[in-house]
Specification:
Helix 1 runs antiparallel to helix 5 and helix 5 runs parallel beside helix 9. Strands 1-5-6-11-10-9-7-8 form an eight-stranded mixed beta sheet. The chain contains 16 helices and 16 strands. It folds into two domains: 247 residues, BirA Bifunctional Protein, domain 2; 101 residues, 3-Layer(aba) Sandwich (Rossmann fold). With 433 residues, the protein is α+β, with helices and mostly antiparallel strands. 39% of the residues lie in helices and 21% in strands.
Length: 433
């Protein structure tokens, strides 16, 4: 029987995984500068964590969630996105307490799961890197979060990006706009797709996000939420635009953008790329927004929040299409060449000592002749080789060769064990000269 990975999943094999590690490390270093700390939540949660927060009419809940009943008859869901689980952890662990500094800033990275048609950049198991910040309603934080997202993508190597923003306003803005939108859409009800007919009753704002061509033609003439903002919501959005301009971050406003999750309000945004990876069309790589009220939905106090998520698979596709060479260092510091079985114990002791001293080191395990071992050293991009045979073993020495310059010196084994740093610096000095 031939076993294959489940449909919609990918094996991230050595070589490819180095690219993932680079993206993750770049994100970790950037988030640390912004004072975000890592949070790790379960890959599965109770069904209500997502059904309650994502919205009953969202595609995630109605079509895409992997949910099941476990052996204890508990309704469980593989997480389809990162925010709701982080909010649940924030509430359950009382991270809103008076001793916790505000804003509380956290980041996460890991796999998410949605049952959808697999295609390029869209898998059933996919990976997200995201951030969440709680406890501040100031639009300045909205802009800082967007600036950090743009900074992350640029540090990863993307250049041709577009920031698109909108506002969903506060509760009163939504109520007023809801009424106006229904009034506009009702006469077109018979022309709407089946999904949008259902959403017209349950959540008409979701129709603005429809991918159906006929729906899109109808909503193109729909009223704009910007005309229904309360004075407070309008000031919030105006401040966001002003601060983005102050930071010299270009942006566009898209009034029909609502995002795919029902918990958003006030500022929402998407960062898009027109990469060849997606046919040269503007496609979202990173998205997020403000979600005041979500903490309350999951049993916590009235605390605002904002965040974003980056799809790692999509990001890597764009980097590949744009021919961005990630600076991945896979060089080997030393390769130990052992000649004859008699050197087996000593070469093992050497690689162990060098690794413990902080160097990457490798040796032969297949009994190959010296020529084969040197070929392995070349394939591994070894900077140095350390050769020891029976004669060298008897006198306690080894031959240290710089593989790039060809320079070779003889060094006592005792000096290597005593401290290799100076020997290494001298051996590779000629490379840099």
């Amino acid at each position: 029987m031939k076993y294959q990975r489940p449909k919609g999943t990918t094996d991230i094999i050595p070589g490819e995984s180095a690219k993932w590690q680079y993206i993750e490390q770049t994100a970790r270093q950037l988030f640390q500068k912004y004072r975000y700390n890592e949070i790790r939540t379960p890959i599965f949660e109770n069904f209500e964590v997502f059904s309650r927060t994502s919205g009953e009419t969202s595609d995630i809940v109605t079509k895409e969630m992997y949910d099941f009943f476990d052996k204890g008859e508990r309704h469980i869901t593989l997480r389809p996105e990162g925010t709701a689980g982080v909010v649940r952890a924030y509430v359950e662990n009382k991270l809103y307490g008076p001793e916790v500094q505000r804003p509380f800033k956290a980041f996460y990275m890991g796999p998410m799961f949605r049952y959808e048609r697999p295609q390029s950049g869209r898998q059933r198991q996919f990976h997200q890197i995201g951030v969440e910040a709680f406890g501040v309603d100031n639009p300045t934080l909205d802009v800082e979060v967007m600036a950090m997202a743009v900074n992350l993508l640029r540090q990863c190597g993307l250049k041709d990006l577009k920031l698109v923003i909108n506002t969903l306003g506060d509760a009163q803005s939504r109520t007023d706009y809801h009424e106006a939108l229904v009034k506009y859409l009702k006469p077109h009800e018979s022309e709407l797709s089946d999904d949008s007919k259902e959403r017209l009753v349950k959540n008409p704002l979701r129709i603005l996000d429809s991918k159906d061509k006929q729906d899109q033609a109808i909503v193109a003439q729909a009223p704009s939420i910007l005309d229904y903002l309360t004075p407070e919501a309008a000031i919030h959005f105006e401040t966001v635009k002003k601060l983005l301009t102050a930071l010299q971050i270009p942006f566009e406003i898209e009034t029909n953008m609502v995002r795919g999750l029902d918990y958003y309000n006030h500022t929402i945004f998407e960062i898009m790329s027109n990469s060849k990876a997606f046919g040269g069309q503007w496609t979202t790589v990173c998205a997020g927004g403000r979600y005041n009220g979500l903490v309350e939905q999951l049993g916590g106090p009235e605390i605002p929040g904002i965040g974003f998520g980056v799809g790692v698979e999509r990001l890597l596709l764009v980097l590949e299409a744009e021919k961005v060479e990630l600076p991945i260092a896979d060089d080997l510091d030393l390769y130990i060449v052992g000649i004859g079985e008699v050197t087996n114990t000593e070469t093992l002791k050497l690689v162990q000592a060098l690794r413990q001293a902080g160097y990457s080191a490798e040796r032969d395990y297949l009994g190959r002749k010296p020529k084969g071992q040197f070929k392995s050293a070349n394939r591994m991009n070894a900077h140095l080789t350390l050769t020891i045979g029976e004669a060298e073993l008897q006198v306690g020495e080894a031959h240290l060769k710089n593989m790039h310059t060809g320079n070779e010196v003889t060094v006592p084994l005792a000096d290597i064990y005593a401290g290799f740093d100076k020997i290494y610096r001298n051996a590779i000095k000629s490379e840099k000269e």
